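Hi all, long-time lurker, first post. I run a small reading group and we've been trying to get comfortable going from sequence to structure in the token notation. Rather than ask abstract questions, I figured I'd post a concrete chain and ask someone more experienced to write out its structure so we can walk through it together at our next meeting. Sequence below, copied exactly:
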Amino acid sequence: MKETPYEVIVMDNGSTRPLSEQQVRAFGPEFKYRFVSTTSVSPSQAINSACRDALGEELLVMIDGAHILSPGVLRRSIDAFTLFPSPFIATVPFHLGPMRQNDLF
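-- Answer (accepted) --
Happy to help. Here is the structure in token form:
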């Protein structure tokens, strides 16, 4: 797979235990961190802000940092952006262990 430039904007939507910018930037120069001070549980304000500030022409939005994008998902996303003018790409979640995470608590 050829190298594709990318940027990752980590939006922290009012966490009580936020990450530090240094923790996020440790992954590389492509990673940026912003904390959104909010009492809303909706991520829409943070997502809209990140989309406005993104430098690229194509956007991949991932809600919930517990998800992992595999090389195959990234490769197929790049293919879709190449083949179609404005694709909507969605993935199916898979869960590790016998139960979904939100069913454990």
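A couple of things your group might point at:
The CA atoms of residues 43 and 87 lie 22 Å apart.
The first strand starts at residue 8 and ends at 13.
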